[in-house]
Amino acid sequence: MPLVIISGHRGGTGATTVVSNLAAALQRTGLQTLSIDLHPDNQLSLHYGVDQQLMTGWAQTSVRGADWKQCGFQAADGRRVLPFGDVPPYQYAQFRDGLRETVSTMADTLSSPTADWLLFDMPVIRHHALADNVIADVYARLIALADINLHVISPDLGCYRLLKQAALNGDALSDKQFYLVNGADTHSPLSLDIALLLESEFSNQVLPVSIHKDTAVAEAAAHMTSVTAYMPDSQAADDFHALALWSLGRVGKGSVGA
Length: 258
Prior knowledge:
The protein is of the alpha/beta class. The chain has nine helices and eight strands.
């Protein structure tokens, strides 16, 4: 069961949208996917048609001492999701205190074949609810288990500067970590130029597949579904299909850590 972790290199790059739509593209190839939301903002379930009045999730139930395995949902297209849930600020400390045990239990449970592919929506660790060394350590352990770790970046000067700064600081990605350009605008010369600059300067780290800016993505999200289901002939649907094929070629259908 390959494990994919997807996170934004900074906020606002569309990592949650990538998780949902990559899951849909993999599902379209005949694979069963399970996506787990590790983000306290609890946004992933929006893309799976989950009733937003149901604020349950693995983190919320763990705080209450309930069974997190009962919090999963299945979308109309068969994709499965385990939301984070609504954890109010006054319960953050309790959540952090029990996180190590909860994730350990979750890892043991998910080690059995619950799905063909497992995807995690990983937040930027600087989130105020995660400002704790214990949480950073737990999430780092999950990253170490990943077969693929995608850092979603936007083709803008902000992300370009962050990547250049990381390179100057000697920060290097592992052979399982890659940058995914999301939101390349074919109508914007600046966006295309920066995308080409990123691919040129970070050719060993930037994926050969990118996700183009497409209004179908936002429309699909507004309808609480994937772009593959909402508009299968769109440019974005083709891009996510290409990303799914790249992912399959990278790890195939092997087990986690293979």
